[in-house]
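Standup notes, protein team

Yesterday: finished cleaning the Acaryochloris thomasi RCC1774 set.
Today: Ribosomal RNA large subunit methyltransferase K/L structure.
Blockers: none.

Input for Ribosomal RNA large subunit methyltransferase K/L:
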Amino acid sequence: MNTYFATVARGLESLAAEELETLGASSVEPGFCGVSFIGDSALLYKVNLWARLPFRILQSLKEFPCQDAQDLYRGIQTLDWQTYLTPEQTLAVKATGKNRQLNHTHFTALQVKNAIVDQQQQRFDERSSVDPQTPDVLINVHIHRDLCTVSLDSSGSSLHRRGYRPAVGAAPLKESLAAALIHMSQWQPDQPFMDPLCGSGTLPLEAGLISINQAPGLYRESFGFETWPNFESELWHSLRQNAVDSCRETLDAVVVGCDRNPTVIQQARQNAANCGIETQIELYQQELSLVEAPSDHGVLLCNPPYGERLGKDIDLGAFYKLLGNVLKQQFKGWTAFVLSGNKELSRTIGLKSSQRFSVHNGSLPCQLMKYELY
């Protein structure tokens, strides 16, 4: 059994802990921007394939006291690196955190790399090359006060990159955050779902994938663990085939996305095609003022512009007022959720929220506001 750490967006630690427990993780402990848990290699593969909320799954190798560069070098060399990395494989080191002596992540990463390749040189008279873009083994080092944590990154690229979305709008919502918002809304696949401001489609796409029980990692090209020396290919192919077999062909309820911009709707349709659900969900161009509910009840979830990356050139106050009017007039019987990073704008919706959740969209603190529409 190994100890793992799933990195997640700030504020989503408890939700991610719940998700990991449902996937079979044990000793699950939420922390700051992540969740630690214990499991075997099958669980590691399964979490990378099925977890919708984490960014990366790190396998912890060692923790040791570390005040300066000498401590770091010696601590890294106490690990037997031939277990994790052969000289024929490429490596990269990602360093995060700092302390008084180790206050530059590039220097920290360089020191770690030197300690590893020096050990290889002494043992094999050859060493791994560095590949910062697509390494065979990605090593993660985190410095916190006088402690160093060394891990292997099992995911490779961030897990929020599902592999289905090369086409994005100007301010795309991360897939992992979209999945978290859907979870927070308590939407169930037997309920209609709609996003009237869907952009390139992230929210309806994630809802559609949840509805047909498609593993979020199924369309990724690769994971970091696939190039590890101890990679169990038969186990991985079995888990992946099980994920393919578990996909459902049809939705229990309608999933809809629309947007006024025909270009981003075309992107949304392309993204839906990339993950094989273009015929299951509805995506179409429509002005917000003309949007109508597709049924007499359901969950509406949207991420309107709030002036950080989109919307600076439009009257957002009037836009939010229009959104509120559409919700009141066209979505009676629905429950609506609106994500906003601007409290002043959210007041112009003209509806009283029944609940508010704190969420971070990247580094921006936001609120997810719930409205019961009667």
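Follow-up from PR in the comments: Residues 308-313 have pLDDT under 50 and may be disordered.
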